[in-house]
Amino acid sequence: MIGKETLNEINAMRKKALRDQGIMIAVMVLGVFGVAFSPVLGIVFIILVFLFGRSLPSKKNYMKLYKEKIVRGVYEQMFDHVSYTPDKGFSREWVEEKLLISRGNRFYSDDYVSGEYKGCHFERSDVTMQDHRSTGKSSYTVTLFRGPWMVFDLEKSFQSYTKIVEREFLNSGKPSMFSIDVNEIEMENTEFNQQFRVYTTNEHDAFYVLTPHFMEKLMEIEKRYGGKMTVGLINSQLHLLLYTDENAFEAPLMEEVTEQNAIVCQRQADIVCELIDSLDLDRMEETK
């Protein structure tokens, strides 16, 4: 999938980034020791670290090359009309208005990809939502969500809100009653009810979309990929969130880049294909 020449190019850039980082750390250590013997010399070293760090493009260039060759390469091979922006993600406002994860005071999103598979348009981005808390004497950070957030356009037309969340996913409970009026409903599938909780603003739409086939496939997908899963059916779109606690597109700095990195990226892309194929998202009939 990834040619030897491409891997050699990426690893050459990785080694340069690693070498430059080592030099910066060494200068910083010298600066710390220099302060003990000569404050002026120590300050000079610290200034050098600052200036060297600001002018250090090798790591940024390596990350950019990795994502262009590995991530973009995989997605352009598998999908049509691909748009990939490594530094872009879903906005905090957009994420919070979906009411699918709890709000925190720290938010990150990047690696935005959009494209089409079998005529079905999709978007995905890595999302991290955290809450930094302080007890007065100490502080800690709770990760509320970290993983891929995927969105698929559905042919079925509905203007309602339905949230399906795994019972063990405590950070994604019932949407606030003050922001949206929802009811919890039970489906006819007992196993599904034991694993998931369903909240909706429109029971008719929820039962219309959550067919027996759809529920069976959701349970199969959860078992196959693991993690904590949340699903949103919002205004003719399917949102699927997988709490994997990792960023699959992050470029390794300490390890050599191999074909395995492309395989890991492809597994992320396979989730999109699997969802569209198994849930028949490309063949959902539009409401008459």
Notes on the structure:
The protein has 288 residues and is of the alpha+beta class. The chain has two domains: 56 residues; 213 residues, no CATH class. The chain has eight helices and nine strands. The longest helix has 34 residues.
Q: Unreliable runs, pLDDT <50, ≥5 residues? A: none
Helix amount, in percent?
A: 40-55%
Q: Can you summarize the main beta sheet?
A: 9 strands, antiparallel
The end-to-end distance, rounded to whole angstroms, is 44 Å
Task: Classify the beta-strand content into a percent band.
Answer: 25-35%
Rg value: 23 Å
The quaternary organization reads as single chain
Total strands: the figure is: 9
Q: Secondary-structure element order, as H and E?
A: HHHEHEEEEEHEHHEEH
Mean pLDDT level: 85
Name the structural class.
Answer: alpha+beta
Count of discrete alpha- or pi-helical segments spanning 4 or more residues? 8
Indicate how many domains the architecture comprises.
2
Strand order of the largest sheet: 1-2-3-4-9-8-5-7-6
Overall geometry comes to globular
